[in-house]
């Protein structure tokens, strides 16, 4: 281990507090590791416009999708969900996030999908892996997952010209009760956000539902990273906030597609950016969790496009 002090020992700093309540988070913090070069994608797999240059040019895109775009988004959503499931099953102590990325990359290619994160604004990997205090956009590297970590895996697949975006936080080995509760409440926040989706209602309903639940449980809601419209482009100008913003009066309409992806913190919700320009961590280094789905607004609610269970139950 990287420290001699045990959790319940008095902290070295002389505060008189237990180490775990004082400087332990800083001692245990996630550190940047070694990142391997971008993995190639075979030329026969269709790629989004930014794949070659890393530059993302926004084009106007209708918020309400055609039946054709929606049908393709169901496929992309399902592919992303499948890959997330495969990678999640590989999470265990000792595995590196780089190994998870390699596995994910293979799974995209097997399905004829382009890994949407790869070279998006220059992002170097095929998934994001965000450990413990990392809020989002952690870059897979040679760090081994340790017993007791939590890790979010974020998968986005580009299939037949559209994207499907989903993520989940996984427990690594034996995880302490407080972190398990954080992960559970974060999952509930996503579920409540989805349950708030209703045509004719303002988008602010979503963030209100999420924030109410998170704060009632004593947690924070990250403000700087938000959900987004999605379709032929990875991120469109539709903004989905995870906290209550009364000015967000845009009405939800049937056929609109967007993600909901709350990031919930045990402490301060503000972030600091690593020097890599991607990895966002909580300022107090306390843990944070996230879950994400891509969905379409229906006539009376939401249809989740990245949920394996709903698809399989519909078929059975
Ligand atoms: N999938 C992330 C999201 O939920 C975005 C990742 S951007 C990347 O919006 F460049 F880091 F891949
Ligand atoms: Co997203
Ligand atoms: Co995502």
Q: Features of this protein?
A:
disordered C terminus, single chain, binds cobalt (II) ion, globular, alpha+beta, four-stranded antiparallel β-sheet, 316 residues, Creatine Amidinohydrolase
Overall description:
With 316 residues, the chain is an alpha+beta fold. It has a single domain (65-304), classed as Creatinase/methionine aminopeptidase superfamily (Creatine Amidinohydrolase), CATH 3.90.230.10. The chain contains 6 helices and 15 strands. It has helices at 24-27, 67-89, 97-110, 177-195, 204-216, 308-315; strands spanning 114-115, 128-131, 134-136, 150-159, 162-171, 220-221, 227-228, 239-240, 257-260, 263-265, 271-273, 280-282, 288-290, 293-297, 302-304. Strands 1, 2, 4 and 5 form a 4-stranded antiparallel sheet that branches. A 3-stranded antiparallel sheet has the order 3-12-11, with no helix packed on it. Helix 2 (67-89) packs across helix 3. The longest helix has 23 residues, at 67-89. The radius of gyration is 19 Å and the shape is globular. The protein starts with 23 loop residues before the first helix and ends with a helix. One cobalt (II) ion binds at residues 165, 228, 259, 261, 292.
